[in-house]
Automatic annotation (TrEMBL):
Belongs to the cytochrome P450 family. It comes from the Bacteria. Coiled coil: none annotated. This is Cytochrome P450.
Amino acid sequence: MEALRPRIEEIANELLDVWQGAEEVDVIETFAHPLPCTVICELLGVPKEDRDEVRKLTAELLAPATMAEAYGRFTAYAERLVATKEPGDDVITELRDQPNLASTLVLLITAGHETTVQLSAAACSPCCAIPR
């Protein structure tokens, strides 16, 4: 984990740079959501172009009205990713041959991303907009 620190700090700083000159900042949308999503996706090997969809699927998976359908779509996405992803320096490459990897990915992404977002949101003001 210590080896990840410089990259996580780099991601955090990139997200904070966006706040420069802003009159108001939505901490949840501009920091609390993208930071853990980016970190977990990079660690696992989820392509950058898929991250908005992964974030959307995670949110739908946690909503009772969309949970069952979202789980099916998320698992199908993870299965496609495992089957088609080019090898790299990531968890998916390391675990590619493990049974139930797609389901494990859904769990890791959801737990790793949403838990961190919710903890960050609990620490923010109710509106999560901070005047500058």
